[in-house]
Automatic annotation (TrEMBL):
<dbReference type="InterPro" id="IPR036582">
    <property type="entry name" value="Mao_N_sf"/>
</dbReference>
<feature type="domain" description="Glycosyl hydrolase-like 10">
    <location>
        <begin position="154"/>
        <end position="463"/>
    </location>
</feature>
<feature type="signal peptide">
    <location>
        <begin position="1"/>
        <end position="28"/>
    </location>
</feature>
<dbReference type="InterPro" id="IPR012854">
    <property type="entry name" value="Cu_amine_oxidase-like_N"/>
</dbReference>
<keyword id="KW-0732">Signal</keyword>
<dbReference type="InterPro" id="IPR003790">
    <property type="entry name" value="GHL10"/>
</dbReference>
<dbReference type="InterPro" id="IPR052177">
    <property type="entry name" value="Divisome_Glycosyl_Hydrolase"/>
</dbReference>
<feature type="domain" description="Copper amine oxidase-like N-terminal">
    <location>
        <begin position="37"/>
        <end position="144"/>
    </location>
</feature>
<dbReference type="Pfam" id="PF02638">
    <property type="entry name" value="GHL10"/>
</dbReference>
<protein>
    <submittedName>
        <fullName>Family 10 glycosylhydrolase</fullName>
    </submittedName>
</protein>
<dbReference type="Pfam" id="PF07833">
    <property type="entry name" value="Cu_amine_oxidN1"/>
</dbReference>
<dbReference type="InterPro" id="IPR017853">
    <property type="entry name" value="GH"/>
</dbReference>
Length: 518
């Protein structure tokens, strides 16, 4: 289901982009087109362009093919281009409305063209034949090309905005230009490490880093909740991320109402102010009660406001469901909102989260099927001592029992596109070994249509916890992941530790990801 969902939007996107009409073509043609291949910007002495009548994007033949290690030939006497890779052989001729793929004729939307002495070929055709996945970011005229051989795996970083941890800095409050500069510098640094995606926290405390009709502006932009920062940070961040050929995932803290129990300073349209009956104080932190259907729908509405209004690549949730210790004052809600007559409180809580996860995914994909929807749960589902099918761990927290996150069901039912467990322990910590947890999660997704990405604890580098006295720990984890084809990528928490180059992690990542190596 996930594969179908991913391919169909790609096809629709290609049809839309490469068959644009009229004004859209003229507008696109007036701006330069940037191309990124597996996260690296492609340089060309002949700029890509759109053929007005055919509405087809043309790109230099040699640039694309050589980047993919394909052999290229050009016969001047017949104006014929050839591309070969493995058993594949393509032949295209100037003025000819078809290409030869082996001995088979395949129609072309536009013929090969010569421009400034360079052969230009239709991007969609070449991409399909050479095994590329194409994403078009129309607002910034950027094309992202990704190969399917693993070199385009997800390589991301979480960017926390709560407490101004990663961005923006508290010193930038009210200064839009400084915030913009900080963000673009961060993107450049992350991309320079080999990363190709960011997961940006757009809802830190039931508020927003964008102009919303449902929730107030976050205080982490100006120091005052509800105060307009003078620009649209989310629109800016998406544009700059896409301009670099990177993916932008909007990260939501679903049920966090506030980081503490203080209510002074909250905007009038904050959920705590408007719906105090939805709020539960759990250990000095305010939560939106997942047991109230209207509260769950409110959060779905908030997420969908972003989905419908912004060109994001994904919706990402963390594990902010119920508190980790399971202490939550919701007995009255249990009695009032239990139409299924679930007898056990814990089962009822899990059902609340299950309903939310399922409904949110359905709503997202109905509106925009191309958007990737995933969740990053705590790294231990259950210990084997609690459940024989659990992992060989002795963790003090279990996501199924404490956060009431029934991740196994989400995977088996295909409610999410990917799962990104936070495996925040080293290869040598006996209570929760990284390798054993990777083994367990890989087995959980095997045979399903749910992708697996791994969350890594960059924030533990240099701490006294077992195994984190060297940055080689991260590299060893990446190398261990190589044994599993089910693992589609890695994401680091968080950006600031990477940017600080803790224990020399940056050159190690650059070497592992072969940054600058053609």
């Amino acid at each position: 289901m996930f594969l179908v969902r991913k391919l169909m939007p790609l096809i629709l996107t290609l049809l839309f982009v490469f068959n644009m009409g009229g004004a859209a073509v003229a507008a696109a043609a007036s701006q330069p087109i940037s191309i990124y291949l597996n996260g690296v910007k492609i340089k060309s002495d002949v700029a890509p362009y759109i053929v007005p009548k055919a509405n087809v994007t043309m790109v230099p033949l040699r640039v694309i093919s050589e980047s993919l290690k394909a052999k290229v030939g050009w016969t001047q006497s017949t104006n014929t281009a050839t591309i070969s890779k493995g058993e594949l052989k393509l032949m295209m001729k100037v003025g000819q409305k078809f290409a030869l793929v082996g001995s088979k004729k395949v129609p072309l939307d536009a013929s090969v063209q010569l421009k400034n002495g360079r052969a230009m070929v239709p991007l969609r055709f070449v991409s399909e034949q050479l095994g590329l996945v194409v994403t078009w970011y129309g607002s910034v005229n950027t094309i992202k090309l990704e190969s399917k051989d693993g070199s385009s795996s997800l390589k991301g970083a979480w960017i926390s905005t709560v407490y101004n941890l990663d961005w923006p800095s508290a010193a930038s409050y009210g200064n839009a230009e400084q915030q913009k500069q900080e963000f673009t510098q961060m993107l450049d640094e992350l991309q320079g490490m080999g990363l190709n995606a960011v997961f940006v926290q757009v809802r830190p405390s039931a508020d927003a880093l964008y102009s919303s009709k449902l929730v107030p502006w976050t205080k982490f932009l100006t120091g005052v909740q509800g105060q307009d920062p003078g620009y649209d940070p989310l629109a800016f961040m998406i544009a700059e991320t896409h301009r670099r050929g990177m993916a932008f995932h909007a990260w939501f803290n679903p049920f966090r109402a506030n980081v503490d129990a203080k209510t002074d300073g909250l905007a009038p349209n904050h959920v705590i102010s408007q719906h105090p009956d939805w709020i539960v104080n759990a250990n000095g932190k305010l939560y939106i009660n997942p047991g109230i259907p209207e509260a769950r729908q409110h959060i779905i509405d908030v997420v969908m406001e972003v989905v419908k209004s912004y060109d994001i690549d994904g919706v990402h949730l963390d594990d902010y469901f119920y508190p980790t210790d399971g202490k939550f004052d919701d007995m009255a809600t249990f009695a009032q909102n239990n139409s299924s007559q679930i007898a056990n409180l814990d089962d009822w809580r899990r059902d609340n989260i299950n309903q939310f996860v399922k409904q949110l995914g359905e709503t997202i994909h109905k509106a925009k099927p191309a958007i990737s929807y995933g969740i990053s749960p705590f790294g231990v589902w259950r210990n084997s001592s609690t459940d024989p099918s659990g992992s060989d761990t002795k963790a003090g927290v279990e996501t199924y029992d404490d956060m009431h996150a029934d991740v196994r069901t989400w995977i088996q039912e295909g409610w999410i596109d990917y799962v990104m467990p936070q495996i925040y322990w080293s290869m040598t910590l006996s209570a929760a070994r990284y390798d054993k947890l990777v083994d367990w999660w890989t087995n959980e997704v095997r045979g399903t249509n749910v992708s697996l990405y791994i969350g890594h604890a960059a924030y533990k580098l240099g701490t006294t916890e077992t195994g984190w006295n060297t940055a080689d720990e991260i590299i060893n984890q990446l190398k261990y992941n190589e044994k599993y084809p089910e693992i589609g990528g890695d994401v680091y928490f968080s950006a600031q530790q990477l940017r600080k180059n803790m224990l020399g992690i940056v050159p190690l990542l650059q070497s592992y990801y072969k940054v600058g190596v053609n």
